[in-house]
Amino acid sequence: MLYTLAASAALVGLARAQGAGTETAETHPKMNWQECSGTGGNSCQNQNGEIVLDANWRWVHPVGTYDNCYEGNTWNATACPDNAACAQNCELEGVDYQATYGIQAGGNELTLKFVTEHEYGTNVGSRVYLMESESQYKLFNLNNNEFTFDVDVSELVCGLNGALYFVSMPQGGHGEAGAKYGTGYCDAQCPRDLKFIDGLGNVEGWEPSDSDGNAGVGQRGSCCAEMDIWEANSISTAVTPHSCDSEAFTECSGESCGGTYSGERYAGTCDPNGCDFNPYRVGVPDFYGPGKTVDTNQKMTVVTQFIADGGSLSEIRRFYVQNGQVIAQPDAAIEGLSGNVITQEFCDAQEGVFQEEEYPFNDHGGMASMSRAHDAGMVLVMSLWGDHYAHMEWLDSNYPPDGDASQPGVARGDCPNGISDPNDLISQYPNAQVKFSNIKFGPLGSTFAEPASARVKREKRTAERAAARARK
Ligand SMILES: *[C@@H]1O[C@H](CO)[C@@H](O)[C@H](O)[C@H]1NC(C)=O
Q1: Residues 50, 231, 247, 351: which is the catalytic one?
Q2: 28-57+96-471 homologous superfamily
């Protein structure tokens, strides 16, 4: 009966592009956050938020049936002979967040579990977005604002990444299913592992992954700007802007996408590397980790300020709060790099000091691009993942793995090389999890007790930049 309905819909030429199924109602877990004003983190208003699981994790099935359009890491050739037919024939399903995906939200907290065994198989990792309504993502403009959250990374071993970041996704997602079903993802890697992009399938030329039983790479990729506030585990952390020639969602094709999923990493229109500030990597190895200055055995508050003097992003500033103590990002401590903030000058210096084969952040617009992305509004992403491509060694170990660790920029964390194949992590650390909570957003100084000395320093730098602009 259901099949007949679907077939007759196709016969009368009813367009259906990446629609939603009806087997399971899609009910978004609630996650509240706070919008702040004034100073000191005391004037904050509760916002009723909800989160949605990305479309790529969902069951995709032929319209109205219990069959599969995609299983393991291959497409069903009958339902998906090409990109257009696949989007017509298949639909995305609602999910049971906790039982199937190990995602638990409530109050102001969100917990993402690494491995979840469920009725139909095993789920690995997840990626969720914050919504402002059932069918629209919440857009944030970070310029001249401050984003603060608490995080517990104590169970994130080497090779895992519990990430909180922003991307320039379309607010309503893509296709008929739209943002309600977590569609529309893009980032600065121009990911080609997405099953649907812009309401069409990614089945043509799809190559199943050798190492990931759930993933593959298609010909179509999904690019946009990315502001990584937090990529971290218990060993290392990085804050990293990624620029793009065009900040908004842009489709790319094949190897010209560049990024992680393409043979030519630097062939695309976005910056896959970023201008990162990882304390370990810039010469302060004793700052972040178990028992260190910022102790990853305990929950911490992470504050990120986006100073945009004269309207354009000039500085990304980081503080931690732990046990009531405010701890500033440490100053870089390797020859040629200084200060504890990301500015265009810091990125220019990093390009010279790290001497990598390419420095794509500056090639694709640098801080000015990130600033435009902020102004256009970005979507908040929270995820937990293992890295089948580079085993997260770019975050927490020596990278490149055969690099000389005594050279600037190679050592990024205490993790030994060669221990973080996600397939090993899945069997050894299935219960790993990350917990994000207590999100606060508002003007500079509104979300936490900014020390008077820090405020004075920030305002002095703003005044200096205003004077420099006036001289030009
Ligand atoms: C593949 O799709 C066809 C057409 O919708 C369906 O009849 C078949 O059962 C699907 N195969 C699997 C393995 O789900």
Answers
A1: 231
A2: Glycoside hydrolase, family 7, domain (2.70.100.10)
